[in-house]
Each structure stands twice: as structure tokens, then as C-alpha cells.
């Protein structure tokens, strides 16, 4: 008998797939307009090139994790946790270095939302009841 998924797990799986699609869109926008982004000085040049390099990888991992989460596979949960921890640490390091984007994501509210989402995902997917669903 198959277990019924928790609503939060289902929503996170769908959110992960949505963010994968958004990451692919952002990748192509960034690839198409990276010279303009550099000229307008929204972020340091190395961040633009890093974003172009990392976004397709993140997009694929988010898609894989979303599918895995919707199928209650432990690897889907683990991938989403790794991505969240990586993004949280990257934001902290950039803040400590004094590097922020001149976009809404780099403003205090955007940073607070990012931290909140990553921390919520990490908290939710490490709860015993949720972990049990992926065994």
C-alpha cells in the first residue's frame, strides 16, 4: 500500500520543479544579456560568469529533486537539502565578503526571503515525520 504524501512535501516537489524551469529561463536571459548585466554593474563580473556556469547544473538538480520528492524518493529529499545548504552558505559567504547584487535579490528583503526559504526547506525536510516518508 502506498503512503499518502504530506501536503508540504508535495508543494516542495512542485516548487522545486517550478524553480528548475525558472532557473533555465534565468540562464538563457543571463546568457543573452550578460554583456548588459556587466555594463550596468548589477553584480561583479565573476558572479555573472559563475551564474552562467552554475544555473544549468542547479536547474537539472532541482528538476531531479522535484521529481524524486513527488515520488517520495530519499535521493530527491537529499538533493534538495544539499542545494538549500549550498545556496544558504553561498549567500552567507557573499554577505561576509560584502558582495551583494544590485537587484531585488540583493536587497535586505530579498535576502531575508532567500534565507527564510532555505532555512524552512532545511528545517522541514529534516523533521522526523517528513524523513520517515522517504524511507
Could you explain how this protein is built, in words?
By secondary structure, this protein is mostly helical. The chain has one domain. It has five helices and no strands. Helix 1 packs antiparallel against helix 2, helix 2 runs antiparallel to helix 3 and helix 3 packs antiparallel against helix 4. The chain is globular and about 55 Å long. The mean pLDDT is 85.
Which terms summarize this structure?
135 residues, mainly alpha, 79% helix, globular
User: Could you tell me the number of beta strands?
Assistant: 0
> How many discrete domains?
1
Number of helices: 5
How does the overall form come out from the CA principal axes?
globular
Report the radius of gyration as a whole number of Å: 16 Å
Q: What's the multimeric state?
A: single chain
Mean pLDDT metric: 85
The SSE string, one letter per element, is HHHHH
Strand content: under 5%
Main beta-sheet annotation: none
The helix content, as a percent range, equals over 70%
> Span between N and C termini?
14 Å
Q: Which residue ranges are poorly predicted, with pLDDT under 50 across at least 5 consecutive positions?
A: none
Give the helix/strand class: mainly alpha
